[in-house]
Amino acid sequence: MNTKVSVIEDLHLDKKYIHEAAEIIKSGGVVAFPTETVYGLGADALNEEAVKKIFIAKGRPQDNPLIIHVCDKDVSLLVNDIPTVARKMMENFWPGPLTIILNKKDIIPSVTSAGLCTIGIRMPANDIALKLIELSGKPIAAPSANISGRPSPTDIERCVQDLNGKVDYILGGEKSNVGVESTIVDCTIDPPCILRPGGITLEMLREIDDKIYIDPAIMTTPSENLKPKAPGMKYRHYAPKAKVTIVEGNLQKTIEKINEIVQNYIEKDLRVGIIATEETKELYKAGEIISLGSRKELYAVAKNLFETLRAFDDLNVDVILSESFEEEGVGIAIMNRLRKAAGFDIIKV
Asked: What pTM, to 2 d.p., does this model score?
């Protein structure tokens, strides 16, 4: 397949590229495009054959549901009922990195929802994404624009690495400014439940409903029998080529343990990557060290996480050791992604 790649530097001057991409969506094709969370791989959510192309391009399991992206807060054509709490979330956080799970209408094909009677919907906070949806005249089903299981792309270069020759069009814009996928909240139950943490935090959502909670299963190894209600609940995700191990616990002990493990790996002629922070990067004695940013700025850490995992692929490391982060605010999303990237391989100190 011949993939066209276009980069939008000015939304008004380069709008023709969005028109081209929208025509591909209309005709049943597949387009990678930027959002504020990560880059997405989109197709007409109501076209069964088009949606199947997403799964083929990504190598994505068919039982992993997709998220539908819209450009308007009125989603009544797609879902059967919208609880008051869901409406409040839309008013407060749309457009933005929040996906709301609702009961779907039959207009949404089974392949889009992975056979579920529910569907996740969000309105992205990205001008290119919103214009693409508007011009296509279609709700767009879109997981992240990467090969399934790999770290999600936050810029066009990583999309091209993974999907060139596998999709019809790659539409580039600025680097994603959130850096982890959207928060997913199940509003088909009361109280609502967070099925995937993201940039909209538990604390923020509890301003809407103080009973909202996080599904405890999302931070543990998923069951083989799990039927995922939201993307990323069942399968290993966000994984670089190298094996990832997280060291959790007291920060000083974490640094000591990582230094100890690094030496053991070096003695075995293994190339080691270390995920560090601005506060700790000078304390490691060997290895390829990349700082995610300051521990005082967890949103910056989240923004840099996936690109850092991919950067270690560029460095051809054999193993990656990562510090852990405080599980509050967006730190919950960071640790959720790290644990999945590591396949829940964790050393406690």
From this structure: 0.93
